[in-house]
Design goal:
This protein has strands at about 10, 15-20, 30-35, 40-45, 55-60, 70-80, 80-85. By secondary structure, it is an all-beta fold. The chain has a single domain (about 10-85), classed as Thrombin, subunit H (Beta Barrel), CATH 2.40.10. Strand 6 and strand 7 form a beta hairpin.
């Protein structure tokens, strides 16, 4: 059994994020679970239908100014949501 040790510390962070993907009928409003320097886990059952390697766009909501839209790659999928890594644009 291979054990994967995390390279980046995760911080529990609950915030609202809008996730966009061409296969979604409409944008998904979801909640983050945790965040690291390189990625984020987002909770929403629709995200469980994504595949590792899929690319989505995410934008944090409810900020005092409009947050940037970030490109995210699916790294893992669970029944509760998906883990993404940030893609540098």
């Amino acid at each position: 059994m291979q054990v994967h040790l995390r390279q980046h510390i995760r911080t529990a962070l609950k915030c609202t994020i809008k996730v966009t993907h061409p296969d979604f009928a409409e944008d998904i409003i979801a909640n983050t679970e945790d965040l690291s320097d390189t990625g984020v886990f987002v909770q929403h059952p629709v995200l469980a239908g994504l595949k590792v390697g899929d690319v989505v766009y995410g934008q944090v909501q409810d900020m005092p100014i409009e947050a940037p839209v970030l490109m995210l790659e699916v790294m893992r999928v669970t029944p509760d949501g998906a883990g993404f890594r940030f893609i540098q644009q």
